[in-house]
Design goal:
14% strand; globular; alpha/beta; 42% helix; 191 residues
């Protein structure tokens, strides 16, 4: 019903992707029931693809077990140079589930990082572009947000930056489990 209401508001019959934003395990949300409902929406032609967001390994596995791997297009998760979430990323990639990175700039906290600033200087780029280029080079779909046109254009230009293996390795040392988004009741127990 929620998807149908959204489609009505959007004045369209279907969308490309529908995802569950938060699994909400502490609120008693049952992943199998939720995923089965999404699969029904897909079978009805209301959505072309199904995705999940903020699912840990256990919840992603529950989703796979319920509707099959072939029906899960992505897991949208918080990732940044300060939160690289390698266990979950490795699991998703091993399952061929696309990783979508949100909060890639960690609310702007990575913008003043000396390591990223040094790499940015070498590429005549901004630290934001380097963080986005890192995520793109890791194979993630990246969804940065900005309301300023110049930032939007700069974000797009990050696609042109090719970081060296040494630079990627240097960025990997910035991991600090720096989670920015962790809403009580909605978030799972993180891997």
């Amino acid at each position: 019903p929620s998807l149908k209401e959204s489609l009505h508001k959007l004045r369209t019959d279907a969308v490309n992707l529908t995802l569950i934003h938060w699994p909400a395990p502490r609120l008693g949300v049952q992943i199998p029931e939720l995923m089965q409902t999404l699969l029904e929406a897909k079978q009805q032609g209301l959505t072309e693809h199904i995705g999940v967001s903020n699912f840990n390994i256990e919840l992603t596995q529950q989703a796979i077990d319920t509707i099959g791997l072939e029906h899960i297009a992505t897991n949208q998760i918080e990732l940044s140079p300060y939160l690289q979430n390698q266990r979950l990323v490795s699991f998703l990639q091993s399952q061929k589930i696309d990783v979508t990175s949100y909060m890639t700039l960690a609310y702007g906290k990575v913008l003043n990082d000396p390591v990223l600033q040094g790499i940015a200087a070498q590429h005549q780029a901004s630290t934001a572009q380097i963080a986005l280029a890192w995520a793109l080079q890791k194979g993630f779909a990246v969804i940065p947000s900005s309301t300023k046109r110049e930032h939007l254009l700069a974000n797009l230009a990050a696609q042109e930056i090719q970081l060296s293996q040494e630079e990627m390795a240097l960025i990997s040392t910035l991991e600090r489990n720096g989670r920015e988004v962790d809403p009580d009741q909605l978030a799972p127990i993180w891997d």
